Amino acid sequence: MNYFVGIDVSKDTFNIAVLHQQSFILSKHLPMSQEGFSQLLSILKQYPKPIVVMESTGRFFLPLYHFLLANDIQAFVINPKILHRFFQFLSANNPSKSDTKDAKLLALFAQTNPQFLNPLPPDHHLRNLSRLIQKLKKELSEAKTQIKYALSVLFPEVEKHLNIFSFSFLNILLKYPGASYLKKASTDDIASIINSTSKARKPSFSPQEIINLAKKSIGIHNPYLSQTFIFYIEKILFLEPRIQKLENMLLEEIDHDQNQQIKLISSIRGISPKLAVHFIAEVKDVNRFSNAKKLIKYAGTDPVIKQSGKFRINMSISKQGSPWLRNILFQMAVGVVTWNSYFREYFLRKKKEFKSYKKAMVAVMNKLIRVIYGLCKKGSYFNPVLSFNSKNFISICEGSHA
To answer: Are 56 and 78 in contact (CB under 8 A)?
Structure first.
């Protein structure tokens, strides 16, 4: 009989519980340190082929997980949502929680639900890297919004005349944060900043044009807002090169099969290769899903339907899947509705049917998933001339294609 070891991990400590047959034979509290890891290894070596399970909450479990793998110990990671439902089922009459109890629940879950025991995929870092990039891009977008707001007060005319987020102009604003400062600047000083930051590309503005525009500006002089303005400029100049570096790292980690799927997905007009990379980082491999419906469910864009007798009501989407993947799909949907006539026509038809922008966009997201699934299964590039409603294509998406 197997020995199941549940480990509940926190920042500084972890609890273990060893289950054999129907009895817990050991419970122990250990520190998250080399000493604690060594003690755990000594305990595990007492049992023949122990099966270790832990919950994938946060990142605290990763050092211990990789330590176990390095020492040839079978280790599996459980999705916290699945474990939570298991906890609710077993603890209906005793909902109290403790670290020791959680460790025991993990061991019991592993014993009774072996179908959920999956090792952490070797490319799990791709998903983490992709999510970090998305977080930083969100911060970048927020910083740009703050800069637009500040400029509407400090130098409102400038946005109509040039690209306010060009590298050269941001560096000019860093030294002269507003029209009240710029109108006193010398053309030589502005030219010096442009020459040192233009990156071999001639800017669309001259020093004199900026100074003249500043002199005619209705912008106010506000040192406090200017300092806030400088903070967000520095944030943009800090984030942009680092996001680029992380995106290059992500591209380097993509394997051959994933790269082929990225090419197929980005053949859809409106989806950039970078966005396709983030999609694959979340999905891992489109072909691991037996049909398109399972991929839709994985994304959490499947509709919630409530039925009672003759009444059948379509509610909102389930949102049970990955919120990161849904965000990527929404960005994809915006792109294809804007640039792809096939999806734009589909969107307009659904918007007329549902009388709702949001519901129409969800329909586009699900249509996009079905098309992506079919393209990756067939190994074909997107061709709007082909009928995605044909029996052959539908059979592929439903997983019934031989």
So the answer is: yes
